[in-house]
Design a protein that fits this description.
Elements lengths: L2 H6 L4 H13 L2 E2 H7 L4 H13 L3 E6 L2 E6 L4 H34 L4 E6 H14 L5 E5 L4 H5 L1 H13 L3 E6 L5 H9 L2 E5 L7 E6 L2 E6 L5 E6 L1 H17 L1
């Protein structure tokens, strides 16, 4: 009997080994099984009683010796049905507990989580996070005039393509105006931008989902991701107000 298949049905590794042995060898005592199976005596008793509890084996005495045998294979169906019922009961219990658990989580874990990154490789991880950890599928950007100079145009071209492939839209408040070629590129990459004339900021701000990334391109390159809904919502509101005036 394939033990891996039995494990997929919900048996532990030890239970699968013991069940397979009993199915193929018939009624056996612990003494007989211990010689053939890679399970220690104390553990084997627990394994066999686990099978009995699941209804897949029976314990009985024969000539004053405790032996075990498997029940009819159809019992597996009843075991699985019972497992499904227990799973549904656990799901219902989890749903019932969720409001209380969520309330306590919010109370005790509402402090902003701050992640720090250094150097170009660290900054690349921030940009990667705007893609892989962004269920909102939108990034709002206050662009720095130093970004291309620091990270390179080729990096941003590749980043823009990958971001668009993940169906993430981007709106950018930029210090530079757009050329016709740049407008076509933006459209292809699900990007929209407006110019804030004379905007000169040495750090970029990216707002996405419940996070805010701040990337400083001046001198020592560093970045942070602040994971906090209130912070993200505040900066998102500021972005929208400015965006609507441009």
């Amino acid at each position: 009997m394939n033990e891996e298949t039995l494990k997929k049905l919900g048996l532990s590794e030890g239970e699968a080994v013991a069940y397979s042995y009993l199915l193929e060898n018939g009624e056996s005592s612990v003494g007989q099984m211990i010689k053939k199976l890679p399970i220690k005596r104390g553990n084997l008793y627990n394994v066999l009683r686990g099978l009995v509890f699941k209804g897949l084996a029976e314990e009985f005495k024969k000539n004053k010796v405790v032996e075990f045998r498997v029940t009819h294979p159809s019992q597996i169906k009843y075991f699985l049905a019972k497992s499904e019922d227990e799973l549904e009961a656990r799901k219902k219990l989890a749903n019932d507990l969720m409001p209380e658990m969520t309330s306590k989580y919010t109370l005790n874990y509402s402090k902003p989580a701050v992640h720090y990154f250094e150097g170009k490789e660290g900054i690349k991880k921030i940009y990667e996070n705007t893609i892989i950890s962004n269920p909102s599928k939108e990034v709002l950007v206050f662009r720095s005039h130093l970004d291309d100079k620091t990270m390179g145009i080729k990096f941003f071209q590749n980043y823009g393509k990958i971001r668009a492939e993940h169906e993430i839209k981007t709106r950018i408040i930029s210090p530079t105006s757009q050329t016709d070629e740049k407008k076509k590129e933006d459209m292809a990459l699900k990007r929209e931008r407006k110019q804030w004339e004379n905007l000169q900021i040495p750090a970029e701000i990216d707002i996405y989902d419940n996070k805010v990334a701040i990337i400083s391109f001046e001198n020592h390159i560093v970045g942070t991701i602040i994971e906090n809904k209130a912070t993200a919502d505040t900066l998102r509101e500021i972005f929208e107000k400015i965006w609507n005036t441009l």
